[in-house]
Write a structure and sequence with these properties.
By secondary structure, the protein is α+β, with helices and mostly antiparallel strands. It contains 13 helices and ten strands. Helix 10 packs parallel to helix 12. It is rod-shaped.
C-alpha cells in the first residue's frame, strides 16, 4: 500500500513537471513568433504596428502565461521537496526531475526578459510617437499664429493701418460735406464715377480725391498720390475690379464695441425713453444714423443696430459717452480689430505652448534615469525632440514681443498721423486767416508804388521849374486819394490782425503760431507803407504850396479890388466864393 501511494505521488510529480515544461514551451513559442513577426515587419517603427490596446492585451496575456508558469514551478518544487534523496526506490528519478525543473525556470526567465524587451520597445515607440505629435502640434500652433499675425507683422501692414487713418479722415470730411450739401453716399459715388460707371478704377478714384480736396478746400485731405492709392485699396473690396457703390456705402458704416454695459432706449432723450435692452461688454453695434445731442443732458447719443449679443438685430438709442466721462461705445478701427484677434490667438498659443512643454516633460519623466535597451535610445530621441519643441515654443513667445513692438510702433505712427492731419488742418486754417491780409498787404505795396509814381513829376522839379508845372492840384488830389487807400488798408490790417490773433489765442503753436507772427509782420508792412505814403504826400503838398505862394499876393489884391468895386464885405465875398452849403 505504501508503495502504491508513492507511485501515485511520483506520477503526480512527473505530470506536474510535464505540464511545467509544456507551459514554459508555449510561452517561449509565443515570444518566438512575436520576434519573427518583428523581423518580417522590418525596422520601421521598431516593428510595433499594433494599436496601443492590442499591445496592452498582448502584454497582459503574456504576463498571465508567465504567472501560470511560475505557479507551476512552485507546485513542482513543493512536490519534489516531499521526496527524500535517499529513497531507495525513487531517488534515482529525482536528479532528472530537478534538472527539468531548472530548465523550465531558465526558460521562464528568458521569456520574462523577452517580455520586458517587447514592452520596453512598445513604450519607447509610444513615447517617441507622442513626442513627435507634440512637436507637430507646436509647429501647427506657430503656423496658425503666423497667419493670424500676418496683417500686423507682414510687409506693408503698418502702411495699411496708417492708410486706414487717412481713410477715416476722408470719410469724416465727406460726412460733413454730405450733411452741408444734403447729399447721400450714392450722390458722392456718382460724383466720383462721373455718373457714367458702376465702378471707379484706381486712376479715376485718385483724381476724384484730388478734385474733392480742392472743392472743399480742406488741408487735412492733402494726401500724396501713394496714400490716395492706398485709400482706394481700402475702399475697394476687389481692387482689380474697382470701387463699387456698395464699397462706398460700406466705408460710411460705423461699428462700435461696447466698453461698459449701457442701456438701449427707444428715443434720443434719456429721460423720456423706454428701455429696450442692455448692451454687454464686448458686444458690437452699427450706427444707423448720425450722432445727436440729448438737449436735456448734453450727452452725445446715436441710434444703433445690435450686431451681437442676446438681442442682436434690435435697434435703439445709446450714449457714446456718459456725462461723467465713462466710455460706453468705442468705434472699431481696423487696427484695433486685428490686434484683438491677434491677442486671442496669442493667448491660445501661449496656453498651448505651456501644455505642450509640460506634456513633453511628462513623457521624458516616464523613462528611468538608468534606462537600458530600447528605453535608453528613446531617452536620447526624446531629448532631441524636446529641443525642437523648445525652439517652436520660443517662436510663440517671440511673437508676443513682436506684437507688442508692432503695437508700440503703430501707436507712434498713429500719433504722428494724427499730428500730421491736425497740422495740415491748422495750416489750412492759418492760410485762410492770412489770405485776405496778404492780399491787402500786396495791395498796399502796389498803391504805394503808384503813389510814388504819381508824385514823381512834381517832386523832381527844381524851384525855378515849379511855376511852369501844369496841374499841380490834379497830382495832389490823385496822391491824396492813393494815400487814403493805403492808410485805410493799414487800419483794416491792424483790426484784422487783432481779431485773428485773439482767435488764435496765447497758447498757439505750429502753423497757427506762425500765422500769428506773420499777422504781426503784415501790420508792420502796412504801417511802413502808410508812413511812406505820408512822406510822399507831404512832399507833394509842399511843392504845391511853393507853386501857389508867388501868386498868392496878386490874387488877394484882385479879390480886394473886386469886393470894393461891388461893395461886398469880406464875409459876403467868402460866401460867394464858397457857394451854397
Amino acid at each position: 500500500r505504501r508503495s502504491s501511494q508513492k507511485d501515485l505521488r511520483m506520477q503526480e510529480t512527473k505530470a506536474a513537471v510535464d505540464e511545467l515544461e509544456e507551459l514554459a514551451a508555449e510561452l517561449a513559442e509565443e515570444l518566438k513568433l512575436m520576434e519573427q513577426e518583428k523581423g518580417a515587419e522590418g525596422e520601421e517603427g521598431d516593428g510595433l504596428a499594433e494599436a496601443e490596446d492590442e499591445v496592452q492585451a498582448t502584454v497582459e496575456r503574456l504576463a498571465a502565461s508567465a504567472e501560470g508558469v511560475e505557479g507551476q514551478v512552485k507546485k513542482c518544487k513543493l512536490l519534489l521537496c516531499k521526496w527524500s534523496k535517499t529513497d531507495p526506490v525513487y531517488g534515482k528519478d529525482m536528479p532528472a526531475l530537478v534538472k527539468r525543473l531548472r530548465a523550465a525556470e531558465g526558460s521562464l526567465l528568458t521569456s520574462r526578459q523577452g517580455m520586458a524587451d517587447y514592452e520596453q520597445r512598445f513604450v519607447a515607440q509610444r513615447l517617441r510617437t507622442e513626442a513627435g505629435d507634440l512637436l507637430e502640434k507646436a509647429r501647427e500652433e506657430v503656423k496658425v499664429l503666423t497667419e493670424a499675425c500676418q496683417p500686423l507683422l507682414g510687409e506693408g501692414g503698418g502702411d495699411r493701418f496708417a492708410a486706414a487713418l487717412s481713410a477715416k479722415t476722408l470719410v469724416d470730411a465727406l460726412r460733413e460735406y454730405m450733411k452741408e450739401k444734403e447729399l447721400e453716399a450714392k450722390d458722392i459715388f456718382a460724383k466720383a464715377s462721373g455718373g457714367t460707371s458702376d465702378v471707379v478704377g484706381e486712376e479715376a478714384f485718385v483724381a476724384w480725391l484730388a478734385e474733392f480736396k480742392t472743392e472743399v478746400d480742406k488741408a487735412e485731405l492733402d494726401f500724396e498720390d501713394e496714400r490716395r492709392k492706398q485709400i482706394f485699396k481700402l475702399f475697394a473690396a476687389d481692387a482689380d475690379k474697382g470701387v463699387t457703390e456698395e464699397d462706398f456705402a460700406r466705408m460710411f458704416r460705423r461699428h462700435y464695441t461696447c466698453r461698459a454695459k449701457v442701456t438701449v432706449t427707444d428715443g434720443l432723450q434719456v429721460a423720456k425713453g423706454k428701455t429696450i435692452t442692455k448692451i454687454d461688454l464686448g458686444d458690437e453695434v452699427e450706427a444707423v444714423g448720425p450722432d445727436s445731442v440729448d438737449g436735456a443732458t448734453g450727452v452725445v447719443r446715436v441710434e444703433v443696430k445690435l450686431l451681437s449679443g442676446k438681442d442682436a438685430g434690435k435697434t435703439g438709442w445709446v450714449s457714446l459717452k456718459g456725462n461723467q466721462g465713462t466710455m460706453y461705445l468705442q468705434e472699431v478701427s481696423p487696427f484695433a480689430k486685428i490686434t484683438e484677434k491677434v491677442a486671442t490667438h496669442l493667448k491660445a498659443a501661449e496656453k498651448a505652448a505651456g501644455d505642450l512643454s509640460r506634456s513633453m516633460k511628462a513623457r521624458i519623466a516616464e523613462v528611468p534615469v538608468a534606462a537600458t535597451g530600447p528605453l535608453k535610445q528613446v531617452k536620447t530621441d526624446l531629448g532631441k525632440i524636446a529641443q525642437q519643441l523648445t525652439a517652436e515654443v520660443g517662436k510663440i513667445i517671440a511673437f508676443k514681443a513682436k506684437v507688442a513692438n508692432a503695437k508700440a510702433q503703430f501707436a507712434k505712427r498713429e500719433d504722428a498721423e494724427r499730428r500730421s492731419v491736425a497740422e495740415r488742418k491748422e495750416r489750412g486754417e492759418a492760410e485762410g486767416m492770412l489770405a485776405e491780409c496778404r492780399q491787402k498787404v500786396q495791395a498796399s505795396e502796389e498803391l504805394l508804388v503808384r503813389l510814388k509814381e504819381a508824385a514823381a513829376p512834381i517832386k523832381a522839379l527844381k524851384e525855378a521849374e515849379l511855376e511852369a508845372f501844369e496841374g499841380p492840384l490834379t497830382v495832389l488830389k490823385e496822391c491824396e486819394a492813393l494815400w487814403g487807400e493805403v492808410s485805410q488798408i493799414a487800419k483794416d490790417v491792424k483790426a484784422m490782425s487783432k481779431e485773428k490773433s485773439a482767435a488764435i489765442g496765447l497758447s498757439a503753436k505750429g502753423p497757427l503760431l506762425e500765422a500769428k507772427k506773420e499777422l504781426a509782420t503784415f501790420v508792420a508792412k502796412t504801417d511802413v507803407a502808410d508812413k511812406g505814403g505820408q512822406v510822399v504826400l507831404k512832399a507833394v503838398r509842399d511843392a504845391c504850396r511853393r507853386i501857389a505862394k508867388p501868386k498868392q499876393a496878386a490874387l488877394l489884391a484882385a479879390l480886394r479890388a473886386d469886393a470894393r468895386k461891388r461893395s461886398l464885405s469880406p464875409e459876403q465875398l467868402f460866401a460867394e466864393i464858397a457857394g451854397e452849403g
